[in-house]
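USER:
Working in pairs, take the chain set out below, taking as long as you need, and write a paragraph about the fold.
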Amino acid sequence: MNHALNTLFILAITALPFSGNAQIGSPAPNFTVTDTHGNTHSLYNLLDSGKVVVLDFFYTTCIPCQFYTPQVNLAYEKYGCNTATVYFMAIDYQDTNAEVLAYDQQYGIEYPSISGLNGGGNAVVGQYHIIGFPTFYVIDSSKTIVQEIDPPTLQVFDFRFQQLGISPATCAVSDTKESSGDNRLQLYPNPLTGSRLNAGLPDGIKGLSKYEILDFSGSPVRSGQLDLVSGSPVSVDLGDLPTGIYLMKIAASNSGKFLTGVFARQ
């Protein structure tokens, strides 16, 4: 992935606070985007339903983004896993769905992620005039940017949410968490060194289903059909697959779910 426009900012981003995008008190532009699991999200619909939305602007090779992700995950869990007042959403810049899915798996991100190239993230980055990553904005029902979380540590989240009168909440199982957790494929061996890749399936997934193998740019390199049996692994012959990082995606015909997993080919 190329980030030519960001090159001039790299030293500033890594050595200084992330501000420079500050728009506290400004109206929050509306947007409708599609996350990496195919779910649609409208900012104003979320706000009108009573949510306070946290926008996490990032890209997958951003070192500060990677560094702070464990802290953000703690805040996501402490404030209800998107089932209470606070709703976290990640807005990526310049990556594909495959790249963002791989990033989410590697760093344990459970809230919805919108890729820049496939989900509409690039347009949102432009709407909000983001020039530094990561940037975290908090938007309330007034449709205004009311806080910036900088730096994005759990302590700063706690302080800013306390200012807004938001309390911690129980992390109940949510649809979002199910889509990014229960829909993951358990791929082995990983890395793949032989010819056959095995995929462990969640219970209840069965029937003739289509699969795709995507490379790290998001381009399909293999596809076919699998006869899925609930709770049983499936196997695909990938003996001639070149070295690289890949995403496996299975469209489960009986549930409408997309099952995904990332693996390396050595």
